Amino acid sequence: MSVHNKAINELTPADYLVIEKEHLLLGRYLNNLRDACACSNSDKLLDSKTCDNEKQSSCLGRLPSFLFHIIELAGMHFNDEETIMLSRPNVIKVYKYFLSHQQAHADIMQKLQAIVDRCLALRSQDSVAEIYIQFHKTLSDLFEEHDLNFDDPFIASTKT
Ligand SMILES: [Fe+2]
Ligand SMILES: [Fe+2]
What we know:
75% of the residues lie in helices and 0% in strands. It has 5 helices and no strands. Helix 1 packs antiparallel against helix 3, helix 3 runs antiparallel to helix 4 and helix 4 (95-122) runs antiparallel to helix 5 (128-157). Bound molecules: fe (ii) ion (2 copies).
């Protein structure tokens, strides 16, 4: 990808650790989300009647905190990543790259807000398991696409 730019030199170990740690946190969040709803296991979903009311309301009760936590987590990570990118030597030379990466973060934040609003609105209609499954899939796809297009090339460009 053209965003690879040798003008960005090696990250300091501390910066690299921050990014790595936060990517791990996001990955952990997605795993917790995948396992959060006892009824969202795809085998059980075929017979959603196996999810009793108590389980359903427990999953429903925990949904808002999952929805809002990702906005906080992603917002913090994007800020840190942008600060690290801006602190690179010769950042002016790669400013266009920085701006497009920053714009991609802003787009994700906007999408996250819309997804959260949609999930909250669906709470009274859809099965809670279905909401968890869809939320997990949408988030996973969103972050995977971003990693491929922006974070991976950025990290690779620091290892020249
Ligand atoms: Fe990232
Ligand atoms: Fe990023």
